[in-house]
């Protein structure tokens, strides 16, 4: 089954999240059935990362967005476990700092973009600016935007402008060799409840629980609408979204690793060819080394 095609959303049809299954496992029945495929995907990603680095033509940016407890951290850790740390960077975006707020809202992500030949992973991203800020528009007022001095000014046209800015920004990145792979981990409210309870009941998971997470849960419906709007307005053929069922963590990891590899395959990554002159010089050096006593 082509998971890249199955879970890709490029904005062509209307998006309604509640109609998309959060427990879909695409025919797999349990973790054991997918384990071999996940391990193979990890090995393949390692190989393609080496070619990506050697070719030095593209950069890859993997974006993860989700509600709390959807499994972003564990998915990143598992899928990227075989990747060379020197060729990969993970950035976790939390609340903007004072310095961030003194720049345009895309500044803090722009300075963290991966360089050519490397893979960058955003745990949350510039999409927080049309997700959490849409649910809590008061956060916009701290961004010192000209003529935006009240919640009333943060109207439909404001959000439409932001969606357009983000879409244009990602198109600019694409044209400059940065391949963006965007994942929304689609978790059900019932499964989030189960995971929150585990964080409370299991001592080794207490550190994961935050009172603020529970507070945000009360805005569940608002977040669902914010995700629908953000995804549907910023999904394009070149920069689609992948809406991944997240109720089964093992399947989330499998789907994400498979889709990343499918996208990288399309780049036709190859090791650079060596010129005849360099090959001749290498042969000369080889003979010199072999002749050493």
Architecture (CATH level 2) name = 3-Layer(aba) Sandwich
| Rg result | 22 Å
**How many individual domains?**
1
CATH homologous superfamily?
A: P-loop containing nucleotide triphosphate hydrolases
Largest sheet report: 6 strands, mixed
Task: Give the C-level CATH assignment.
Answer: Alpha Beta
> How far is it from the N-terminal to the C-terminal residue, by CA?
57 Å
CATH fold-level assignment:
Rossmann fold
Strand order of the largest sheet: 1-6-5-2-4-3
The structure class reads alpha/beta
Strand and helix map with partners:
Elements: H1 3-7, E1 8-9, H2 31-55, E2 59-66, H3 72-79, E3 88-92, H4 98-101, H5 107-110, E4 119-123, H6 132-135, H7 156-175, E5 178-186, H8 189-201, H9 211-217, H10 220-234, E6 241-245, H11 249-265, H12 276-291
Helix pairs in contact: 2-11, 3-11
Description:
This protein is an alpha/beta fold. The protein is built from twelve helices and six strands. A six-stranded mixed β-sheet has the order 1-6-5-2-4-3, sandwiched between helices. The longest helix has 25 residues, at 31-55. The radius of gyration is 22 Å and the shape is globular. The protein starts with a helix and ends with a helix.
Highlighted features:
293 residues, alpha/beta, Rossmann fold, globular
Write a compact overview of the structure shown.
With 293 residues, the chain is of the alpha/beta class.
